């Protein structure tokens, strides 16, 4: 992996976690 690939993956994981937390909070 290149540094850019890792950073982009981290951003995706962060955004997914945010959506999951929001969906849980909505329930």
UniProtKB/TrEMBL annotation:
<dbReference type="InterPro" id="IPR041366">
    <property type="entry name" value="Pre-PUA"/>
</dbReference>
<dbReference type="Pfam" id="PF17832">
    <property type="entry name" value="Pre-PUA"/>
</dbReference>
<protein>
    <recommendedName>
        <fullName>Pre-PUA domain-containing protein</fullName>
    </recommendedName>
</protein>
<feature type="region of interest" description="Disordered">
    <location>
        <begin position="1"/>
        <end position="27"/>
    </location>
</feature>
<feature type="domain" description="Pre-PUA">
    <location>
        <begin position="3"/>
        <end position="26"/>
    </location>
</feature>
<feature type="compositionally biased region" description="Polar residues">
    <location>
        <begin position="1"/>
        <end position="14"/>
    </location>
</feature>
């Amino acid at each position: 992996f290149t540094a850019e690939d890792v950073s982009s993956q981290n951003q995706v994981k962060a955004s997914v976690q945010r959506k999951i937390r929001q969906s849980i909070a909505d329930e």
